[in-house]
Amino acid sequence: MGNAVMIQGTASDVGKSVLVAGLCRIFVQDGLRVAPFKSQNMALNSGITPDGKEMGRAQIFQAEAAGIAPDVRMNPVLLKPTSDCKAQVVLMGKVATNMDAVTYHNYKPRLRSRIQQVYRSLASEYEVMVLEGAGSPAEINLRDRDIVNMGMAELAECPVILVADIDRGGVFAAIYGTLALLPEHEKRRVKGVIINKFRGDKALLYSGIEQIEALTGVPVLGVMPWLKVDLEDEDSVVLERGKYDARTPKDLDIAVIQLPYMSNFTDFNALAAQPDARLRYVSQPHELQGCDLVILPGSKNTLSDLRWVRENGFEQALLAHHQANGAVLGICGGYQMLGKHIFDAVESGLEEMPGIGLLDVVTRFASSKTTTRVAGKTLPALPGIFSACAALRLEGYEIHMGETQRGPSVESFAHLNECNALPYDSAEGAVNAEGNVLGTYMHGVFDNGEFTRALLNALRERKGLKAWDGEPFDYQQHKQRQFDILADAMREYIDIESIYKIMHEHQEQSCI
């Protein structure tokens, strides 16, 4: 195995995932074969590998930064919360079971040897591995069975760099407290600290940096400024902090209903990046007023979220928006909610619930989970506002437990001819006869530039605006530019040569 380094944090959401992606891009720019790795990820954002396995979106976008295809070995354990105390456990890309927190904590020791085997298999194919921890290594109540922080660093026999978020305050206390709570042999594994998300004059930090280095004996390798870089976020905590609260007026206003168990909100990053569209996540029904498109996103607990939609007034707001000929689009769980009925004995334990009724479809949940990458074309003739999107190439992925049957008053949205890179023949999605309500199982549908531009231009035409000129926005190229911006900034503000030295010295010591 080659070199490796692990990024751990003083807390969740300190920027570990983004810095791992940046290191992956730096190493590949330097001519090295590099891969990311996170043994256990807890997130409702997931994606599908080319061979139809489910893994965390964070490791997928890190693989994109490394210029390689996502491989389920990069994230062997994925936990997808279904309630405050339970989660679906996905092992090596396939659903294993559902567990509560205590049961899973007791189960983790059984995963250690499997995780180590998977890591070694992946690491044998690359020159550098960049590992990511979860939460904090100082969670002393969980340390005895840890498989994702210092427990994983021990399995991988790699050095650790600790990341602290100065934007949330108390950065020096977070660094000192984290290191103070580590046993001495684990503290010795921490070879450097990165202070992340800094705003202001770095000169104000110098005295604090000198003191924290003296107190801990661990050098500060850099201070990363708050970057305006458009990269995927691992979980919806960024929505709570208003990252996507775009206040700048734009020609089009798109509202995504922020469900309690919303999954794959990364579906809408490509929309948020469009030059003429303002994307908002809304939690109050009155916030739908005046918007051009309402999106009902995916959900990890469809019936629970449907109940929330009903109890919080969103159902009536959606019906009113539809009656005013407003456009509505549902993805995955949102598609299921827009139908007439849902029969479920899998996700929530409930048997059935009436849907919102904007699409003539019925969904029945099954115990098996669909996890596929798909491709095809929208139908050659679509009604209403979606007529502008006819006969366009689409690529995306599906992750769902249910099967949805169309009734006579809806048309399918697309014809799929490829599934996990194999020939396929299936109708997908549904569009109502009026052509203002669409449902699809295809995550990543807005990553398709021609489709997204055609839909946005149709919305512009409805408002009496001219079509947006120029080529469709290329979201894939946009992401690649963001990775390069991130890498350039990290080279400027972090001592990358010291990171190379840390890896090389650790590898030499391990070989003695």
Automatic annotation (TrEMBL):
Function noted in UniProt: Catalyzes amidations at positions B, D, E, and G on adenosylcobyrinic A,C-diamide. NH(2) groups are provided by glutamine, and one molecule of ATP is hydrogenolyzed for each amidation.
Pathway membership, UniProt: Cofactor biosynthesis; adenosylcobalamin biosynthesis
UniProt family annotation: Belongs to the CobB/CobQ family. CobQ subfamily.
UniProt entry tagged with the keyword Lipid biosynthesis: no
Higher taxonomy: Bacteria, Pseudomonadati, Pseudomonadota, Gammaproteobacteria, Enterobacterales
Keyword Amino-acid biosynthesis belongs to the record: no
Key words, A-Z: Cobalamin biosynthesis, Glutamine amidotransferase
Pfam families: CbiA, GATase_3
Residue span, CobQ/CobB/MinD/ParA nucleotide binding domain: 5-228
Gene name of the encoded protein: cobQ
GO annotation terms (biological process): cobalamin biosynthetic process
Gene Ontology MF term list: ABC-type vitamin B12 transporter activity; catalytic activity
Listed InterPro entries: Class_I_gatase-like, CobQ/CobB/MinD/ParA_Nub-bd_dom, CobQ_GATase1, CobQ_N, CobQ_synth, GATase_3, P-loop_NTPase
Gene3D superfamilies xrefs: 3.40.50.880, P-loop containing nucleotide triphosphate hydrolases
Matching PROSITE patterns: GATASE_COBBQ (PS51274)
Residue ranges of domain CobB/CobQ-like glutamine amidotransferase in the record: 253-450
Protein name: Cobyric acid synthase
Record: active site: 332 (nucleophile), 443
